[in-house]
Amino acid sequence: MYTENLNFLLSTLSLNASLTSRNGFYNFTASHDHSNMVYGLFLCRGDVNPDVCGQCVANARGEILETFLNRKTAFISHDECLLHYSNESMFSGADWGISFFAWNSHNATDPNKFNQVLRDMMKEIASRAANDGLVCVRKGVPVQAHNIRVSPGQISLSPSTS
User: Fold this and answer.
1) Residues 6 or more apart whose Cβ sits within 8 Å of residue 101
2) Which residue positions does the secretion signal occupy (predicted)?
3) Is residue 105 situated within a structural domain?
4) Structural domain span for residue 143
């Protein structure tokens, strides 16, 4: 029964991803029986149009069905979207268990300057996201001093679901 609910949930999320009215976010729960309940959501980057969002969620759905079908929870993230499902509700609080890390192989010639530029950029992004009520904030800071270039930073926030 859980697998049937999961398939229904993923289909519903995928069908809703390209709808303009969803604004790049949708959550859904499949089943009324708590023992087989499946919770899920997708979140698309705020600057992604509905067609790209829909395609991204459809691709993530395909990956989940291929890779994680027998799991009670899964999380897939692409550049344009993320798709998450679980047998436990994720709608009423922050999930601190999911983190992303990315790096490149280039060394900063001035690590102190690099860290300061990065810290300032992330503070600005966090402040804009919190104060302006934005769902997605992206910022690239090309810094020429000391041959430092900071890649774009991003914070994505899901709308309140509580």
Assistant:
1) none
2) none
3) no
4) 111-156
CA dist., res. 36 & res. 4, Å (int): 9
Longest Cα separation, the chain = 60
136 and 74 in a single domain? The answer is no
- Distance from C-alpha of 74 to C-alpha of 10, rounded to nearest angstrom: 11
Domain match, 8 and 59 both: yes
65 and 25 inside one domain: yes
When divided into structural domains, the chain yields a total of 2
Contact 53, 24 (CB under 8 A): yes
C-alpha separations of 97 from 78, 85, 94 in Å:
18, 14, 9
Q: What is the pLDDT of residues 61-103, one digit of tens each?
A: 999 999 987 889 898 988 889 899 999 887 665 555 555 555 5
Beta bridge partners of 85: 40, 74
